[in-house]
Design a protein that fits this description.
Strand order of the largest sheet: 6-7-8-9-10-14-13-12-11
Shape: globular
Radius of gyration: 20 Å
Structural class: alpha/beta
Number of strands: 19
Strand content: 25-35%
Number of helices: 7
Distance between the termini: 56 Å
Helix content: 10-25%
């Protein structure tokens, strides 16, 4: 077992090896202010074992870590290596992860902003499995990963669940639960996570899903983000996927809502792009694809706020 760690990974390892039964972590802040939480080390070990089982990580494996151990994704990659007794090589986060790595690895976690540089490096065969999390994956990048024949998975989880509880193979619509997890939906249509291996037992989320069975689901969006416009429930994330198919990948935008005398609330697109990059004609395309004009306007702003982990902050326009 070989550990090549960054300074922050070394700090986390020191915390991991102390006598406290928990690790102090912080939520992402994507749905509110980041908050400090305490995660049981026993839960983190159980989560790591489930991921190791899924990816076939053993003591002979090598894991890569181009993410900060300040966040749960980085912390858990360290724990996975410790649980498997395998080698771990970490580096400081960059837009070109492990561009000079000459070896072979079983798994590497990344965020979507790192994928462009990684694909351009031409080293896509150096990793058996790519684990993608942190923010949504664009349809364009999903197609590029498929075309490059990269074995990649998108994670579903949160800090409270010690990273992911389910994974979606790029190219598939449904997430499949790891060993020890099962799923149902509450009266809102939101995902309920049951586990036999982590201490929380049951967790009710605010994620609206379409269940396929007790082990798999399709993510539709956040219940917090649903827009009720004239009695029609609009899921911003579903519309954003369609928009992402036709605008440049570098364009920042999100679907929000504002008050409307006619509809109660009406859905709009908020973007930093100009009219040439994000033309109003996008709304005509959306209306054609979705069978009705759900988006009423394009709002152009100078800046879109982001969380510390790079996620766009959604704001209602009132």
């Amino acid at each position: 077992m070989e550990l090549i760690l960054t300074e922050r990974c070394g700090q986390f390892l020191k915390e991991w090896r102390d006598t406290k039964p928990y690790i102090t972590a912080h939520t992402s802040g994507s749905t509110g202010a980041p908050k400090e939480i305490k995660l049981l080390k026993s839960d983190m070990r159980a989560s790591a074992r489930a991921t190791n089982e899924f990816f076939g990580i053993t003591h002979d494996s090598t894991l890569l870590l181009p993410l900060s151990a300040d966040y749960i994704a980085g912390k858990m990659q360290v724990v996975r290596a410790l649980e498997a007794g395998c080698s771990l090589i970490a580096e400081e986060p960059s837009s070109t992860p492990f561009s000079h790595f000459e070896g072979h690895a079983t798994m590497m976690p990344v965020v979507p902003s790192q994928l462009e540089g990684w694909l351009a490096s031409g080293r896509t065969r150096m990793v058996d499995n790519l684990l993608i999390g942190g923010s949504p994956l664009s349809p364009d990048m999903e197609r590029r990963l498929i075309d490059a024949r990269v074995k990649a998975f998108v994670s579903y989880g949160m800090t409270e669940t010690c990273s992911h509880v389910a994974l979606r193979r790029v190219g598939d619509d449904f997430y499949t639960g790891l060993t020890g997890f099962a799923f149902s939906a509450d009266e809102r249509g939101c995902l309920v996570i049951d586990t036999t291996t982590l201490s929380f037992g049951r967790l009710v989320t605010n994620d609206v899903v379409a269940l396929r069975d007790a082990m798999s689901f399709k993510w539709l969006g956040r219940a917090d983000n649903v827009i009720n416009s004239g009695g029609i429930k609009i899921h911003p994330e579903e519309i954003e996927k369609v928009i992402a198919e036709i605008v440049p990948s570098a364009v920042e935008f999100y679907v929000s809502s504002r008050q409307s005398a006619k509809w109660g609330r009406e859905a709009v697109v908020v973007t930093t792009a100009d009219e040439q990059t994000f033309p109003d004609a996008v709304l005509d395309f959306l209306a054609q694809r979705m069978g009705r004009r759900l988006i009423k306007d394009v709002i152009r702003v100078a800046r879109i706020e982001k969380t510390a982990s790079g996620k766009l902050k959604r704001e209602r326009l009132d």
